[in-house]
Fold this protein.
Amino acid sequence: MVDPKRPDVTAIHSIDRFVLSVPDLAVAEKYFSTFGLDVRNHGQRLDLYTFGHDHCWGSVHESGKPKKLEYLSLGVYQEDFAPLKSHVSSQNVAFAHPHPFGTDEGFWISDPDGNALQIKVAEKSSPNEKAPALGSRYKKNPIDVPIGPNRSEGGRVQPLRLSHILLFASDVGKSLKFYSDVLGFRLSDKSADVIAFAHGAHSSDHHLLALAKSDGPGLHHTSWVVQEIDDVGLGMEQMLAAGYAKGWGVGRHVIGSNYFYYAQDPWGSFTEYSYDIDFIGVDTVWPSGDYQPEDSLYLWGPPLPEDFITNYETRSTSLSAA
Ligand SMILES: [Fe+2]
């Protein structure tokens, strides 16, 4: 395997964890379990794992208040930690106290919208290579042709790993500059000043972090990789059958190229099943595009739900449907 570390580049390599708070933990436990995550209940906190993977991708705390993104924890290689910390200092970014739900590992800063960020040494959890094209559901027929499974063999969808997170931002350009200049994210593609997609320098999916125009901070969606296109459709059925009736998809994105289904969570944000997202390896210099808004969001799919781009953390709709 190619070494995923880009030489002579000091940058974060992964979103190590996202941390949310929600009004009622039981509601979150049911939702994320139905989505197919391995949800571990620690009383006042849920930890979100994927089955067969030992990394904790997210935590959910109970607050009794509306859903809120509390903080992101970003992972860096051990040898990059001290250089990154002094680089952050040189950018006149103030260090902050640990978030009340967080730990004192590493150091803490805030992004331009006030999102708390923990920077810490962590094992790289973003991918080092693109996932293989065909998953385990396919079987061979007598003449060795890979064929799809019977409907009765569909089974439950269990995502493999976290792919990316999309945050609302009051000024996409300003936030993109912060994440690029301070933390080493790299622009993949964007659409005017309404949305920008950024990857990690040390190999990641086409986007590890995306930023969409709003009037303040908020979490739009977390995205989870599934092993084949069928899992996107089966995941949709899984959520619909459990009563999670609202969502968007199945469809195919333009930027990032992935097939998607977004289930809407009980708090108005989304959880995406994603298959076949573009991958940006360590030896790739991605040719960033600036797409027309009406041509950037999806190649095909059902009409966009009216509230798809509503920031329920600030209760605003400020991005027109593309
Ligand atoms: Fe996404």
Observations:
- The domain at 14-125+159-317 is CATH 3.10.180.10 (2,3-Dihydroxybiphenyl 1,2-Dioxygenase; domain 1).
- The CA atoms of residues 76 and 121 lie 5 Å apart.
- Residues 164, 166, 221, 223, 272 surround fe (ii) ion (CB under 6 Å).
